[in-house]
Amino acid sequence: MRPLLIDYSDGGQASNCRIRSLDSWRQILVSRAAVAMSSSYLPATTDSISLALEAKDPSERISILYQILENPSSSPEALRIKEQSITNLSDLLRQGNRAEDLYGHLTHMRPFFALIPKAKTAKIVRGIIDSAARIPGTSDPQIAFKEMVEWTRAEKRTFLRQRVEARLTALLMENKEY
Fold it and tell me: Which residues are in the 26S proteasome regulatory subunit Rpn6 N-terminal domain (predicted)?
């Protein structure tokens, strides 16, 4: 037996609701994704993430994940989905050796970081910085690190600033740039 979902999209009243199967929701999401390629965001749901992971082309996956992140919703479920999207997007960008895009991703995500706890922000930022540092031939990460340090000072995120500075120091020592 397939699970059924209730669609209240026609006004939220019981007289306007429709019962849909999970497959019909997936079809709706696929059609919305096609439309969303021209619009600004996709709904922050697990179906949207699965749609991104099912895409064959990495650039299409990246595009879908960015559209999930553009969703203005700030419900706890949406924030959790956005965190998953950030992790998946970081992995895709690292696999594609796109360090500059990872650093740009950090800058782009700053409004989102204001919505989640500081500890979670620190975990995400450290993960992205570590992912970018693992990319061979990363060109001059110092600029991005310095920009992150300035942002952490402005946002009064002392612990994160110290971690970013420590990571920058470790990278400089590894490259013997004293």
Answer: 53-163
Dist. CA 42–CA 72, nearest whole Å: 10
d(CA 112, CA 107): 10
Q: Let me know: does 40 contact 67? Beta carbons within 8 Å.
A: yes
Q: Strand locations in the chain, DSSP E?
A: 4-7, 18-21
Distance (Å, rounded) from C-alpha 10 to C-alpha 171?
54
Question: Which element (helix H / strand E) includes 148?
Answer: helix 142-154
Other Cβ atoms closer than 10 A to 107: 11
**86 closest CA partner among 125, 29, 48:** 125
pLDDT in tens, 48-59: 888 888 888 888
Q: What is the pLDDT of residues 131-169, one digit of tens each?
A: 887 777 765 666 677 888 899 999 999 999 999 888 888
Angstrom distances, CA of residue 73 to CA of 86, 87, 106, 145, 158: 15, 18, 19, 29, 28
